[in-house]
Specification:
three-stranded mixed β-sheet; 2 domains; 13 helices; globular; alpha/beta; Rossmann fold; 11 strands
Length: 363
């Protein structure tokens, strides 16, 4: 088990990267001394696959365990589900209980469970047990938790750090190629923003990753987790213009998800992949990124089984959703743009014509 420290003073925690070690979860959590009563938030699919193992591990360590099921889609991150969970917690609470939350699932479950943990009783402990590649390398780390509002994604949110991220790559064995590809989008992002070696590894080994190769998954989860841990440690609250680089591809990516009404036609990873192509095109048109680097980015995205074109969506709706993005600063849009493999810059006030062109180019 490899432990990567997210160094945030009193809020520091470990990212435990391992393979087929889920039976050790209870003993690891017990050492944290965060409570006595675990509320496991998950969906029906994940419960069927891993619920009994997680419950048994926690109970063997002396915790009482209750499992709460939420929908298996982005719709779980709604105001309605949030209030339902808060009421469930209040009914499960008591003077002799010390609740903590276990987010068992992908990014949707992690975001929802973390947000609920952040606001119930002004904050109770929670841990992340991510079950998708995307969650293990990105969404489970860093404490950004949120729910969606009707006008856009993640508009109601908090910065609230977990007490542990338990990334068991053995849990990824049930994922199909589409889900692994979705996670690959975020791994590609880390290569573009910080790590040419990681990007080259993906160019050579994307087939192994999509086959679920154990060593390849261990490597990319470890590298990506370490990169994000380092960035979060420098800019926990996204106020120093450091953490913002993690939003590469997300400005237009979130707009694509919103235009698709958060349906499964475009997963988060697929939308981010399209967003990275659009951002790379904007950067190339601004003279910041050379054509060969743009081609490498687009080729890797396609090789990883991710889309490079948009189908079935209205570009006007995508552009409109983009203008509601929470990354606008003082009325100006803000984009993360690659300038080479391993380096990005943040630019504000990108001309609307360039944004529209980048979206249109994806058709």
């Amino acid at each position: 088990m490899r432990k990567i420290k997210v160094r945030l003073g009193k809020r520091s925690y470990d990212i435990a990267v391992c393979s087929n070690e889920i039976t050790r979860l209870g003993s690891v959590v017990k050492k944290l001394k965060i409570g006595t009563d675990a509320i496991v938030i998950t969906n029906s699919t994940i419960k069927r696959l891993f619920g009994s193992k997680v419950k048994k591990s926690l109970e063997s360590a002396g915790f009482s365990v209750n499992i709460k099921i939420v929908p298996d889609s982005e719709t779980a991150k709604s105001e309605t589900r949030c209030i339902e969970l808060l009421n469930y917690l209040s009914k499960s609470d008591g003077s002799r209980k010390k609740l903590f939350i276990v987010a068992l699932g992908g990014g949707v479950v992690g975001d929802l469970a973390g947000f609920v943990a952040s606001i119930y009783r002004r904050g109770i402990p929670y841990i992340q047990v991510p079950t998708t590649l995307l969650a293990q390398v990105d969404s489970a780390i860093g404490g950004k938790v949120a729910i969606d509002l009707k006008v856009g994604k993640n508009l109601a949110g908090s910065f609230y750090q977990p007490r542990l991220v338990f990334s068991d790559t053995g849990l990824l064995r049930t994922l199909g190629k589409k889900d692994l590809a979705s996670g690959m989008a975020e791994v590609i992002k880390y290569g573009i923003i910080k790590s040419p070696p990681l990007f080259k590894f993906l160019e050579k080994n994307y087939k192994k990753v999509l086959r679920g190769d154990k060593r390849s998954l261990q490597y990319i989860v470890g590298v990506a987790s370490a990169i994000k841990a380092n960035i979060v440690a420098k800019d926990e609250y996204d106020g120093k213009n450091v953490r913002v680089i993690l939003n590469l591809g997300h400005t237009i990516g979130h707009a694509i998800e919103a235009a698709a009404q958060y349906k499964k036609s475009y997963s988060h990873g697929q939308a981010v992949a399209l967003g990275m192509i659009a951002a790379s095109r904007i950067s190339m048109q601004l003279g910041l990124l050379d054509k060969s680097a743009y081609s490498r980015i687009k080729k890797l995205i396609k090789n990883a089984g991710l889309p490079s074109v948009i189908k079935g969506l209205d570009t006007g709706n995508i552009f409109s959703a983009q203008e509601h993005d929470k990354k606008f600063i003082h009325g100006k849009n803000r984009f993360v743009l690659p300038v080479k493999i391993g380096k990005v810059v943040v630019k504000e006030g990108i001309p609307r014509s360039l944004i529209k062109d980048s979206i249109a180019s994806l058709l």
